[in-house]
């Protein structure tokens, strides 16, 4: 995925990554400047020397490789906690210099915020902070400082803006917020003007663009798009952006912040996480997972998948609710705490956002990470504590363990060791990380063996116990003639288009057969599945039907490999807690179990 | 000049000149051979025979055996017949510069007097006596005659019409019962006799129908007996009239037409170009009548008024000493309508006193101005022999100032022309049909319809009238279009297939004036019928009028024989997929050249497209040959 | 405005015109003079500041969208309760139409009605075209805005706008707008070549004999046969005739000679002609010849004409450049009346023959709409309110050829084809047909209805 990220020149990455790596003992300390979100958890790690040493020692050789393969990434939210307060002050001072915000106010502000996540950090660590700052800047120059009056800026396929009710810029996909503050001011003005008429703005359409407005609590999100996407789809994307922000800050805290200070500059809390949003926005346009709201599973022999599931099942500890194994950002298997499953399940959105956050943060690629994370769809106001660790040198296989107890780092880390152990002994790791083998994680449409078929997306609706399952889908990799990004965008535009038609709010459809200029597409929704196919434009209708039957037959044959058929579950834990979705909003620590 | 334009009758330019009649020189005219005989002193001092056709006159001598009553060559000038007495006719096998001995034939009937004779073929001759007629065959080598047939009947006078070889005999006391005989290939057939209604009930029982008041002529292929009736029987209408009796081969002779002369006095008749010309000596003018033109029909007879105002024959200059003269002093004007004129049918005028023979001619140009009613004018012109150029000029004239016709008039003219045109086309068609279906054996074998000048086809109209007209600056484009549409309408009215060049003209004109929407509507209603050339013409307009592309594609589609063209058009528009879909639609996708489509796809520089097309043909190869590869022949590497 | 009530407790309110205004930002650019910008505002009762505010919003939105595409500013604004449509027909002259979304009023147990706005119902395409037609219609009868200002300044323009829209707005039936409003097409009368040519020469001769007649259009049975006017002018005039003028003078068109209208016409008894505009009774010397003025070719020659509508059992129109006099009317009546009457029966015959041939008496089990952008030809068996959504499917894309077949939840099939400027929409209600069968049906339709045009399969 990283490789696909157009905006980050790997070359830069190498050099910049170095300071991060040098601080071997505390790899996660490297960079970033998120002042208040997660410092304290990180301190836990240096306090656990051996694990770190082990980390460092375990794969020294891996480091250079990383440099080679992994481009520069923006700082991760949890990083350099130790300096947070200092940074906070720095911020404040900077602001003081140009903003009306008073020093005290700002620090106070910071502290206030931090209080939401427990006591301010006390630990002292490496000097990653400044480095981090530097990292941010160059990595960003590519388009964060784009000239917002330039034609090239206007020509962008899709702009996304986030601003506060006070009209303060929070995020802009292209161009720097300061330069856009007036534009965002107008946006806010429009929103509130129409609000004043006891009405709500939805969108503005011109011949070649759609401007979509979404208001979520104190935040206003605006998308300016030239794509074929429908208003709803654009709105959905904006919600993804919103949730991604929530996943880092939680809803309550944001609400609270703005209750306290209308014109608070939220960028101070999000600074550095633009990369995550940038990446998200690139993803939603190219990864069907978001369109279909389903997860893509790594094709695996059912047996292998089951034994991996079993492995996860065994390696558990109390308060561990989700174990997720991912390879090449495709789901291998996931296990949920029984009681959790009873009345709710992991939402694909949450998983997408989580994976995006992880992949967007190269710092995670070394060592163990322990960081609070919010699953907005699950509970927008609470935190889970995520243990994240890559199991192989190439950082293709990633284990994510979600706990509700922020103190349980060691026990969770121990689970990881057991799992890793199990996989190593069984040689599963090779099976997973071995790319390009017959078990190639992504497959070619050629496997189906029908010439006129170019691509498809298949979302089964008849998986056993579907209601407890993550919605899944399968789709071959994009091959010629869709190698260029332009063509890929075009195709996904069409998919979006079909999707919006067939799921149209006012007039949904069962089937669409569309002979377009460069391809023929078919979308079909039945009780058993949802299918999108792309044919050669010269296919005949009879031909297309024929292809469909072949395709469906093939999927039936392959479904055990393509999908998680029978999700494993934890055996009941000693103290089964029945979960409560959305616990007390002020569930500061252990947001999740606050509800108990 | 303007005046001279008025004369619509004229004497022919090169008359026959002969020595004028005088005591020693008798002049005879043979209607059959149209020859003038000048017999000087009974032939002893020479006989000169001149015809209209033959340039060099025949001249010979014959011994004077008394006064010559009548002298005529047989058809072909082989045998000369001379009547000197009332009882017999002398014959002479004529061989130039080789005097022969004469032989004689007396009339069979005792004490009958020969009124005259006439040759009906090169060897057959008819004697008309006061008691009947005798039909002989001449046997030159035997130097004798053989009686073929004879018929006894009292004859007052007779009249012969060579064209129809019919002899008319005036019988009965009043002489108004006419008995026609028809001669053909050695047979003499008696036709039904008929009676001429005399003006008023005759006072006494004396001959009251004179030969001078009767003429025979073929008009529009039919034989008519023309009777000059000096006083209309119906007292109310004054003035003389000409009554036409139609004399068919078989069946009754019927009175069919009456030509109102509205004047009295001395008249003479001619028939020129199917027009009846009536010369009036008192006024020295002539009137013309066309029995084909509308007249008032009273149930049995049609009354005709003169077509044009009476006019004199065009003044004529007599070339002194005739054509032979080396020095030509100023010519003297010829006295027209002189009492010394003798008129013969159909169109001969002889001035015995002057020694000239003319045939009468009709000049059409002046008529144009004398007949303001364009419809009537067309009806008139279309019946004339030499009408084409006149008609075309009339058309051009009615389309341009100053005396421009209204669309209504223009429409009628077009309709009349196309009506004639259509008749010819149909004749042609049925003829070729007969020929093809091999019914030609069936006798009589069909004869190819002759194309008269009255047939004005689209090409004539296009070249002489319309193409010129559309270039004129003066006319408003509205008018120009209207005219063109009228012509197209007229052609359609008669179900005549419109030629491409006319459509081209319409389109060119519309385009010139940017009347594209008009053009579009015309095509929409298929006013311009489909054809490949038209479709191509439309394609060429696309740059100035984009919808033309659609129009032409539709047209090609309707033609249903233009699939290749359609493909070419689509490819030229880089619509490669469309082209391929179309081909497939008509089931030609297995045979079509892959190379052509791949090239077209390549030109679009659209990789996507090329990929699609390439894969399509790979699959075709797979299907047809079991391998996706192209054969070298296809040049698709 | 109240449409047929929904099921049980529900009550449905159709979309409604909330307001309609025309302004020119250049006219009141100075502070405090904003009111000057407003040239027309409906409803007029609205309080001044409210007007200014709403106009302000529109300006703001237009300006704002220019920051992203300077050349293509906003066309519409969607809000929860309504939609606003913007149109700048002439430079700096903006027309705005605000339409309320349809509402479903649900009744709670406690009896409180809750309004639920159907935000997805309205289609921009439809109402944008309605707005454009508002302008075209105004222009047809009043000329351009700029011309009005040249003629007599803003005051005159305001008067004209007031005079025109005051009546016109009431004729907008927003609840029943649909696909056909988008096309605003012209329905042509099918006719054989010969009859068509006859009509041609009739028109030419009439224009020849009545010199002040500049253009002529010829309609039969509310369908166009010939237009001397250019396409765009004809388009809007046709709309006016068929939706406004003719309905006011309804009578059985195809009744033929023995239709009873003879009685209605005072004066001439030898034919059935009469004026739909201008004098009613030609024998009344007092009869005044006021013919509506129309403005055509406004972007080049800018012609001002008088609209003369003369109708026999069919209609012909003439546009004369001079003020027609009563004598002229008499002349026209005497020339045109009889000929038209004859032509009318000719056409009527043809019409019946065609019907017999094509056997189009029996309704096919599919309904369709056909439109050709090239000549605006429109052919349809229905107004497609229900399935209007399909225009999104095709028209949303550039002018590439495409085809789309959808199966709705109701199991109806809807087929849309677009081929070289032509659009065809077909609805089939064969519930359990499959894709291929549907395709066959459409092929059949094309073979019967459209075999004479190039329509790619």
UniProtKB/TrEMBL annotation, chain A:
Domain of life: Eukaryota
Residue ranges of every copy of the FUZ/MON1/HPS1 third Longin domain listed in the record: 453-559
Chain positions covered by the region annotation Disordered: 1-130
Biased composition (Acidic residues): 30-39, 51-64
Compositionally biased spans, kind Basic and acidic residues: 88-102
InterPro entries named among the record's database cross-references: FUZ/MON1/HPS1_longin_1 (IPR043972), FUZ/MON1/HPS1_longin_2 (IPR043971), FUZ/MON1/HPS1_longin_3 (IPR043970), Mon1 (IPR004353)
Family as reported in the entry's similarity comment: Belongs to the MON1/SAND family.
Role: Plays an important role in membrane trafficking through the secretory apparatus.
Listed name of the protein: Vacuolar fusion protein MON1 homolog
UniProtKB/TrEMBL annotation, chain B:
A Pfam family of this chain: RMC1_C
Domain Mic1: residue ranges: 384-632
Highest taxon of source: Eukaryota
Entry GO CC: late endosome membrane; lysosomal membrane; Mon1-Ccz1 complex
Xref: InterPro entries: RMC1, RMC1_C, RMC1_N, WD40_repeat_dom_sf
Any GO BP annotation: regulation of autophagy
Domain Regulator of MON1-CCZ1 complex N-terminal intervals: 27-145
The name this protein goes by in its record: Regulator of MON1-CCZ1
From TrEMBL, chain C:
Any single Gene Ontology cellular-component annotation: Mon1-Ccz1 complex
Stretches assigned to the CCZ1/INTU/HPS4 third Longin domain: 362-445
InterPro entries named among the record's database cross-references: Ccz1, CCZ1/INTU/HSP4_longin_1, CCZ1/INTU/HSP4_longin_3, CCZ1/INTU_longin_2
Residue intervals of the CCZ1/INTU/HSP4 first Longin domain: 18-143
Boundaries of every CCZ1/INTU second Longin domain copy: 213-318
GO BP of this protein: vesicle-mediated transport
Name of a matching Pfam family: Intu_longin_2
Family: Belongs to the CCZ1 family.
Protein name listed in UniProt: Vacuolar fusion protein CCZ1 homolog
Species of origin: Sphenodon punctatus (Tuatara)
């Amino acid at each position: 995925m990283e490789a696909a990220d157009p905006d980050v020149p790997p070359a830069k990455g190498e050099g910049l990554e170095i300071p991060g790596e040098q601080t071997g003992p505390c790899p996660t300390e490297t960079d970033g400047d998120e002042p208040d979100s997660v410092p304290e958890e990180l301190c836990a790690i240096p306090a656990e020397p051996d694990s770190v040493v082990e980390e460092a020692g375990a794969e020294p050789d891996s480091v250079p490789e990383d440099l080679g393969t992994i481009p520069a990434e923006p700082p991760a939210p949890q990083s350099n906690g130790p300096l947070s307060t200092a940074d906070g002050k720095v911020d404040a001072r900077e602001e003081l210099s140009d903003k009306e915000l008073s020093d005290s106010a700002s620090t106070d502000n910071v502290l206030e915020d931090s209080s939401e996540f427990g006591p301010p950090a006390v630990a002292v660590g490496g000097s990653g902070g400044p480095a981090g700052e530097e990292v941010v800047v160059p990595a960003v120059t590519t388009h964060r400082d784009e000239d917002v009056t330039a034609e090239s800026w206007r020509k962008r396929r899709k702009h996304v803006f986030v601003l506060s009710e006070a009209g303060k810029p929070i995020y802009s996909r292209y161009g720097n917020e300061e330069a856009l503050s007036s534009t965002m001011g107008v946006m806010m003005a429009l929103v509130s003007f129409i609000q004043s008429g006891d009405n709500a703005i939805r969108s503005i359409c011109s011949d070649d663009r759609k401007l979509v407005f979404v208001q979520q609590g104190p935040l206003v999100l605006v998308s300016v798009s030239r794509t074929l996407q429908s208003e709803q789809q654009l709105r959905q994307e904006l919600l993804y952006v919103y949730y991604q922000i929530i996943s880092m800050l939680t809803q309550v805290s944001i609400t609270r912040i703005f209750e306290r200070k209308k014109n608070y500059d939220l960028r101070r809390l999000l600074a550095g996480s633009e990369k995550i949003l940038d990446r998200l926005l690139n993803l939603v346009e190219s990864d069907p997972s978001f369109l279909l709201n389903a997860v893509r599973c790594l094709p695996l022999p059912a047996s292998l998948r089951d034994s991996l599931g079993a492995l996860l099942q065994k390696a558990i500890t109390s308060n561990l609710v989700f174990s997720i194994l991912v390879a090449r950002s495709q789901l291998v298997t996931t296990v949920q705490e029984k009681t959790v499953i009873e009345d709710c399940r992991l939402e694909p959105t949450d998983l997408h956002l989580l994976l995006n956050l992880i992949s967007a943060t190269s710092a995670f690629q070394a060592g163990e990470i322990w960081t609070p994370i919010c699953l907005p769809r699950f509970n927008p106001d609470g935190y889970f504590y995520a243990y994240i660790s890559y199991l192989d040198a190439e950082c293709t296989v990633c284990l994510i363990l979600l706990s509700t107890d922020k103190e349980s780092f060691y026990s969770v880390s121990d689970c990881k060791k057991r799992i890793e152990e199990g996989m190593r002994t069984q040689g599963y790791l090779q099976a997973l990380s071995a790319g390009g083998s017959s078990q190639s994680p992504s497959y070619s449409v050629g496997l189906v063996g029908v010439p006129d078929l170019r691509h498809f997306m298949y979302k089964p609706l008849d998986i056993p116990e579907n209601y407890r399952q993550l919605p899944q889908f399968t789709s071959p990799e994009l091959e010629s003639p869709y190698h260029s990004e332009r063509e890929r965008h075009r195709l996904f535009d069409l998919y979006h288009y079909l999707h919006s038609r067939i799921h149209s709010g006012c007039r949904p459809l069962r089937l669409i057969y569309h002979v377009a200029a460069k391809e023929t597409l078919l979308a079909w929704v039945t009780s058993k599945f949802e299918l999108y196919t792309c044919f050669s434009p010269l296919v005949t209708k009879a031909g297309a039907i024929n292809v469909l039957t072949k395709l469906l037959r093939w999927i039936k044959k392959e479904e055990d490999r393509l999908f998680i058929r029978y999700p494993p579950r934890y055996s009941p834990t000693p103290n089964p807690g029945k979960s409560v979705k959305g616990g007390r909003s002020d569930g500061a620590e252990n947001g999740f179990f606050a509800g108990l | 000049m303007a005046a001279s334009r008025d004369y619509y009758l004229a004497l022919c330019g090169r008359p026959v000149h002969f020595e004028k009649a005088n005591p020693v020189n008798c002049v005879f005219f043979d209607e059959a051979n149209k020859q003038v005989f000048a017999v000087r002193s009974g032939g002893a001092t020479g006989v000169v025979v001149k015809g209209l056709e033959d340039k060099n006159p025949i001249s010979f001598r014959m011994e004077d055996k008394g006064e010559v009553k009548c002298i005529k060559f047989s058809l072909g000038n082989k045998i000369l017949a001379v009547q000197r007495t009332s009882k017999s006719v002398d014959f002479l096998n004529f061989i130039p510069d080789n005097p022969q001995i004469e032989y004689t034939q007396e009339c069979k009937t005792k004490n009958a007097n020969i009124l005259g004779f006439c040759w009906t073929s090169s060897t057959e001759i008819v004697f008309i006596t006061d008691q009947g007629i005798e039909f002989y065959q001449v046997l030159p080598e035997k130097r004798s005659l053989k009686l073929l047939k004879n018929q006894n009947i009292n004859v007052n006078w007779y009249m012969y019409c060579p064209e129809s070889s019919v002899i008319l005999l005036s019988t009965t006391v009043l002489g108004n019962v006419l008995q026609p005989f028809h001669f053909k290939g050695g047979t003499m057939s008696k036709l039904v006799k008929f009676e001429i209604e005399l003006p008023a009930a005759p006072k006494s029982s004396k001959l009251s129908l004179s030969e001078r008041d009767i003429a025979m002529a073929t008009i529009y292929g039919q034989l008519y007996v023309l009777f000059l009736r000096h006083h209309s029987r119906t007292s109310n209408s004054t003035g003389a009239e000409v009554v036409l009796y139609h004399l068919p081969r078989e069946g009754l002779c019927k009175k069919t037409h009456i030509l109102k002369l509205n004047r009295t006095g001395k008249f003479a008749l001619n028939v020129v170009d199917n027009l009846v010309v009536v010369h009036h000596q008192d006024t020295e003018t002539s009137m013309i009548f066309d029995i084909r033109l509308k007249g008032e029909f009273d149930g049995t007879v049609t009354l005709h008024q003169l077509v044009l105002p009476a006019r004199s024959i065009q003044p004529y200059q007599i070339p002194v000493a005739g054509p032979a003269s080396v020095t030509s002093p100023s010519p003297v004007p010829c006295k027209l309508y002189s009492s010394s004129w003798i008129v013969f049918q159909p169109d001969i005028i002889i001035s015995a006193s002057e020694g000239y023979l003319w045939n009468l001619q009709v000049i059409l140009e002046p008529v144009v101005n004398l007949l303001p009613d364009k419809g009537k004018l067309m009806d008139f012109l279309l019946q004339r022999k030499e009408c084409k150029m006149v008609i075309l000029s009339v058309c051009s004239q009615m389309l341009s100032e100053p005396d421009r016709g209204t669309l209504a008039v223009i429409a009628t003219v077009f309709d009349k022309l196309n009506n004639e045109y259509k008749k010819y086309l149909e004749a042609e068609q049925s003829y070729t049909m007969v020929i093809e279906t091999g019914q030609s054996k069936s006798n009589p074998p069909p004869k190819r319809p002759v194309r008269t000048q009255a047939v004005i086809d689209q090409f004539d109209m296009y070249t002489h009238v319309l193409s010129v007209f559309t270039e004129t600056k003066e006319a408003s484009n509205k008018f120009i279009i209207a005219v063109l549409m009228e012509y197209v309408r007229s052609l359609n009215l008669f179900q005549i297939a419109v030629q491409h060049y006319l459509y081209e003209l319409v389109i060119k004109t519309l385009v010139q004036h940017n009347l594209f929407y008009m053009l579009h509507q015309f095509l929409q209603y298929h006013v311009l019928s489909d054809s490949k050339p038209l479709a191509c013409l439309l394609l060429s307009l696309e740059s100035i009028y984009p919808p033309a592309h659609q129009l032409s594609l539709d047209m090609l589609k309707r033609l249903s024989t233009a699939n290749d063209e359609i493909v070419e058009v689509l490819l030229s528009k880089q619509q490669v997929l469309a082209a391929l879909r179309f081909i497939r639609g008509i089931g030609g996708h297995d045979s079509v050249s892959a190379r052509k489509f791949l090239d077209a796809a390549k030109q679009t520089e659209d990789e996507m497209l090329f990929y699609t097309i390439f894969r399509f043909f790979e699959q075709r190869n797979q299907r047809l040959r079991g391998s996706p590869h192209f054969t070298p022949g296809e040049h698709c590497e | 405005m109240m449409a047929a009530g929904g099921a049980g407790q529900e009550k449905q309110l159709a979309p409604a015109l909330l307001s309609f205004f025309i302004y020119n930002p250049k006219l009141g650019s100075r502070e405090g003079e904003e009111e000057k910008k407003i040239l027309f505002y409906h409803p007029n009762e609205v309080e001044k500041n409210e007007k200014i505010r709403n106009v302000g919003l529109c300006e703001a939105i237009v300006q704002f969208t220019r920051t992203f595409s300077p050349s293509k500013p906003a066309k519409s604004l969607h809000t929860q309760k309504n939609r606003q449509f913007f149109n700048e027909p002439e430079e700096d002259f903006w027309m705005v139409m605000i339409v309320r979304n349809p509402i479903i009023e649900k009744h709670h147990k406690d009896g409180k009605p809750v309004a639920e706005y159907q935000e997805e119902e309205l289609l921009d395409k439809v109402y944008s075209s309605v707005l454009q037609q508002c302008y075209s219609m105004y222009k047809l009868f009043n000329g351009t805005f700029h011309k009005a200002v040249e003629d007599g300044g803003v005051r005159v323009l305001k008067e004209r706008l007031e005079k025109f829209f005051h009546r016109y707005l009431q004729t907008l039936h927003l609840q029943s707008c649909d696909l056909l409003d988008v096309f605003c097409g012209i329905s042509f009368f099918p006719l054989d070549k010969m009859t068509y040519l006859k009509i041609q020469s009739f028109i030419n001769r009439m224009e020849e004999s009545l010199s002040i007649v500049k253009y002529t259009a010829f309609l039969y049975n509310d369908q166009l046969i010939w237009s001397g006017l250019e396409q765009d002018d004809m388009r809007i005039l046709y709309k006016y005739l068929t939706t406004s003028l003719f309905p006011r003078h309804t009578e059985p068109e195809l009744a033929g000679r023995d239709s009873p209208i003879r009685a209605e016409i005072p004066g001439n008894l030898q034919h059935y002609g009469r004026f739909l505009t201008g004098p009613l009774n030609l024998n009344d010397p007092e009869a005044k010849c006021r013919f509506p003025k129309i403005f055509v070719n406004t972007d080049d020659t800018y012609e001002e004409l008088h609209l003369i509508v003369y109708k026999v059992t069919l209609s012909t129109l003439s546009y004369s450049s001079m003020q027609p006099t009563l004598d002229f009317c008499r002349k026209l009546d005497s020339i045109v009346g009889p000929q038209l009457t004859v032509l009318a029966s000719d056409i009527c015959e043809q019409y019946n023959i065609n019907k017999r041939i094509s056997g189009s008496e029996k309704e096919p089990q599919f309904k369709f709409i056909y439109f050709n952008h090239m000549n605006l030809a429109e052919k349809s068996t229905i107004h497609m309110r229900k399935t209007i959504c399909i225009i999104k499917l095709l028209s949303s894309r550039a002018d590439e050829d495409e085809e789309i077949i959808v199966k709705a939840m109701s199991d109806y099939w809807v087929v849309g084809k677009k081929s070289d400027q032509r659009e065809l929409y077909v609805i089939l209600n064969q519930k359990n047909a499959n894709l291929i069968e549907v395709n066959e049906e459409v092929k059949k339709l094309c073979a019967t209805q459209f075999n004479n045009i190039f329509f790619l399969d």
